[in-house]
From TrEMBL:
GO molecular function, one term: oxidoreductase activity
Cross-referenced Gene3D superfamilies: NADP-dependent oxidoreductase domain
Any one Pfam family match given in the protein's UniProt record, by short name: Aldo_ket_red
Protein name: KCNAB1 protein
Entries under SUPFAM superfamilies matching the protein: NAD(P)-linked oxidoreductase (SSF51430)
Domain (NADP-dependent oxidoreductase): residue spans on this chain: 19-331
CDD domains per UniProt: AKR_AKR9C1 (cd19081)
Family: Belongs to the aldo/keto reductase family. Aldo/keto reductase 2 subfamily.
Cellular component, GO annotation: cytosol
Keyword list, A-Z: Oxidoreductase
Length: 357
């Protein structure tokens, strides 16, 4: 087992978080996903995570209908609250009322109080919009969220699952309206999903926003447990998604994946790099993300303490070489479409090492 986790500033803020964040989507019964953890198992995972140096916990009001927040809350009530950075989210449908959804002032104000009650705390360290809401003027959302910071219910703000122009609009309006700076972007990012690199990583780098990748193992596909021949392992999210005919962003349909040569080339390279370091493919996939300059912390999900310990082994004590990073970058490289391909071609010799040059 590696040394305890490292800590990094979250984006351009003064808030320090462990570079491995524990995602709580596996906590509580939820028929959408298999192999969920009951309260006792969830608390055991949380206890071990803290023993390994973790201090950053991510959940959402919609996970398991609020049960995930409740489980984190019963654990948090027995801890020294100020030692932990607790993140949750708002946007999804949380009730039967017509206003129990979205990013309106009404729903945001109701949702934060509900989350605080379930989490058994009087503040959330990081409050994130779970997605964009096309029905609500973004200025209304920004103003409401800023009021939560002023009231002390929320300490920092972040976004999740937004596009480049949406994040830039949030940044620019926050500046022009004199509101608190947003510090983080939670996004799907891994060796098999690099779409945020077309625009979002540039926005984050320019604006001092820390990226928090979710699904670093693409639903377990990068764990090394999947083989092209045969079926997805029983109990895995990908097996569940395939049987249900779903194609979740974090857990793709395995029958479709089997036909994708590029996916298996990426998995093979990941396995080879892992063997060279005496590590697991999962640790290599997470380490690749941790060595990206805009990543502050990587969210892992765990259904067992063993899974937690394996993933935490990516945190510290070793690094991928420049050659290995380049090999992983190359094999997983996306084929950009217009206008990204033209922009890249025109700027191939216009690269600065840093913004101060």
């Amino acid at each position: 087992m590696a040394d305890k986790t490292e800590y990094r500033f979250l984006g351009g803020s003064g808030l320090k978080v462990s570079n491995i964040c524990l995602g709580a989507m596996t906590f509580g019964d939820w028929d959408v996903l298999p192999g969920q953890c009951d309260e006792a198992a969830s608390h055991a995972i949380l206890d071990r995570y803290v023993e390994l140096g973790g201090n950053f916990i991510d959940t959402a009001d919609v996970y398991e209908g609020g049960k995930s927040e409740e489980i984190v809350g019963t654990w948090l009530a027995k801890q020294e609250r100020e030692k932990f950075v607790v993140a949750t989210k708002v946007r999804a449908t949380t009730g039967k009322g017509i206003n129990r959804v979205g990013l309106s002032r009404h729903h945001i104000m109701q949702s934060i109080d509900d989350s605080l009650r379930r989490l058994r705390t009087d503040y959330v360290d990081l409050y994130q919009i779970h997605n964009w809401d096309k029905a609500v003027p973004i200025k209304e959302t920004l103003s409401a969220l800023n009021d939560l910071v002023r009231a002390g219910k929320v300490r920092y703000l972040g976004a999740s699952n937004v596009t480049g122009w949406q994040l830039q609009k949030i940044v620019d309006l926050s500046k022009s309206m004199g509101l608190n700076k947003w510090i983080s972007l939670q996004a799907n990012h891994n060796l098999l999903s690099r779409g945020i690199e077309w625009e979002l990583t540039d926005v984050c780098r320019e604006e001092g926003i820390g990226i928090i990748p979710w699904s670093p193992l693409k639903g377990g596909l990068l764990s090394g447990k999947f083989k092209r021949e045969g079926d997805a392992p029983e109990g895995s999210r990908i097996s569940h998604a395939t049987k249900k005919g779903m194609d979740l962003e974090g857990a793709p349909d395995f029958e479709r994946i089997k036909k994708d040569d590029k996916t298996w080339k990426i998995i093979d390279v990941t396995k080879n790099v892992a063997e060279a370091h005496g590590k697991t493919p999962a640790q290599v996939a997470i380490r690749w993300l941790l060595q990206k300059d805009v990543v502050s912390s990587v969210i892992i999900g765990a259904k067992t303490v063993q899974q937690l310990e394996d993933n935490m082994g990516a945190s510290t004590g070793w690094e991928l070489t420049e050659e290995q990073m380049a090999e992983l970058d190359t094999v997983s490289q996306m084929d950009p479409t217009y206008p990204y391909n033209m922009i890249a071609r025109f700027n191939s010799d216009r690269v600065r090492k840093n913004l101060c040059q």
